[in-house]
């Protein structure tokens, strides 16, 4: 959704950015050609897997939607000579906000129908009941697929991806191990490799960063922080990277950027109580008080696209997969300064996302996995910003250290 009065360079409409008609980079076009060739080469195989890897912001979903639209166009065309004619294909994503976006986009493209897009459990249960098998399944955000049964979500089998592979000739999936956020979706490279072992499999790794319009030192700083290191503060540049001493001042700055450019939002680590009980729950940090994002499953627009959400704080689940022009990030009480390493440490007991740590059976290192999930969440939150990232740290020691480093940068 376009927020009025924005200069073109700050336009950041998710539907436009994920449009099947969006011009692809040479790297993305090469990937699209490789997927198409793979699907043709393996159309008569029992099972085959094409794996797309790449960090957040490298444009994986754009390629998926582009090739899916093209294949569906060929499937539903009158061209009987096409290898994709009358093929039965689907795009699956285990992310309700992304599902809204895909279905909204489909309304503008005659070759795409809303029934082409499904959540994995719904798709798996429906296909098992019908006894049918798809030709090609495209799986976005495969790192969100379940790795164990989940009675609450009506998934009775052992692994989403294993079932999806069984239910299709060709599975094309997007995977980023650094975006795993829950015990019940506890993916690793080793687990993924075990599921595709023995199958025809091709991997393509996207490398170019499209989301974060920043110099490499910003990307390095984010990567280092998510490895519990605090690197020197990135130099001043077009990308606005700032640390704030006060959370309310940060929010005021975000509201100012939102008024000027749109799509600027507050987000936070999951360190503040929240329950799905229909009540509002708030984040309090000094003078700052703002409610968590409200659950609106029937809302057509994703949270990141709704103008009213400037009055809310988004979580990792709300913004994963989306771009924001400016991000105001609150690092909650679980993210602490470690003077022994001049880095950070993670207090897993302060994390309020109980659902993330549900289902620990079978995990060899639950505590280590908790820390990994929390660092992954920070990585997702920090890589939402296109033009600016503003940070406030709840921990006084961490806040003081980051402000010292910023003062040293600004004085240089």
Index terms:
15 strands, globular, 7-stranded mixed sheet
Order of helices and strands: HHEHEHEHEHEHEHEHEEEEHEEEHEH
Number of helices: 12
Residues in helix, %: 25-40%
Query: What is the structural class?
Result: alpha/beta
Largest sheet: 7 strands, mixed
- Would you report the number of β strands? 15
> Could you name the ranges where pLDDT drops below 50 across 5 or more consecutive residues?
1-9
What share of residues are in beta strands?
Answer: 15-25%
How far is the first residue's CA from the last residue's CA? 41 Å
Mean pLDDT: 93
Give the overall shape: globular
Q: In order across it, which strands form the biggest sheet?
A: 7-15-12-8-11-10-9
Radius of gyration: 21 Å
Give a short overview.
With 412 residues, the chain is of the alpha/beta class.
């Amino acid at each position: 959704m376009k927020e009025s009065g924005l200069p073109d360079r700050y336009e950041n409409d998710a539907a436009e950015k994920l449009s099947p008609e969006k011009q692809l980079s040479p790297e993305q076009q090469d990937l699209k050609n490789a997927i198409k060739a793979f699907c043709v080469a393996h159309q008569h195989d029992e099972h085959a897997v094409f794996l797309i890897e790449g960090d957040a912001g490298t444009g994986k979903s754009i390629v998926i939607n582009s090739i899916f639209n093209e294949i569906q166009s060929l499937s539903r065309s009158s061209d009987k000579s096409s290898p994709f004619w009358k093929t039965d294909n689907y795009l699956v994503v285990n992310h309700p906000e992304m599902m809204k976006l895909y279905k909204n986009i489909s309304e503008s493209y005659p070759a795409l129908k809303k029934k082409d897009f499904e959540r994995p459990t719904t798709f798996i249960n429906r296909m098992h009941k019908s006894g049918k098998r798809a030709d090609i399944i495209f799986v976005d955000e495969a790192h969100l697929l379940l790795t164990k049964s989940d009675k609450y979500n009506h998934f009775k089998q052992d692994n989403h991806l294993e079932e999806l592979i069984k239910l299709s000739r060709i599975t094309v999936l997007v995977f980023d191990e650094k975006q795993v956020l829950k015990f019940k979706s506890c993916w690793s490279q080793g687990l993924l490799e075990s599921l595709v072992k023995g199958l025809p499999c091709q991997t393509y790794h996207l490398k170019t960063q499209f989301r974060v319009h920043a110099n490499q030192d910003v990307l390095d700083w984010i990567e280092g922080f998510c490895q519990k290191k605090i690197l020197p503060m990135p130099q001043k540049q077009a990308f606005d990277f700032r640390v704030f001493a006060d959370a309310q001042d940060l929010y005021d700055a975000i509201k100012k950027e939102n008024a000027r450019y749109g799509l600027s939002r507050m987000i936070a680590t999951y360190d503040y109580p929240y329950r799905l009980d229909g009540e509002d729950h708030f984040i309090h940090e000094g003078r700052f008080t703002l409610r968590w994002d409200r659950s609106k499953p029937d809302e057509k627009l994703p949270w990141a696209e709704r103008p009213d959400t400037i009055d809310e704080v988004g979580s990792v689940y709300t913004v994963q997969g989306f771009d924001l022009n400016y991000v105001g990030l609150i690092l909650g009480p679980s993210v602490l300064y470690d003077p022994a390493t001049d880095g950070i440490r993670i207090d897993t007991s302060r994390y309020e996302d109980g659902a993330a740590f549900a289902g620990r059976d079978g995990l060899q290192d639950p505590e280590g996995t908790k820390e990994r999930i929390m660092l992954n969440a920070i990585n997702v939150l920090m890589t939402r910003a296109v033009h600016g990232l503003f940070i406030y740290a709840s921990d006084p020691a961490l806040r003081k250290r980051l402000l010292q480093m910023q003062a040293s940068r600004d004085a240089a």
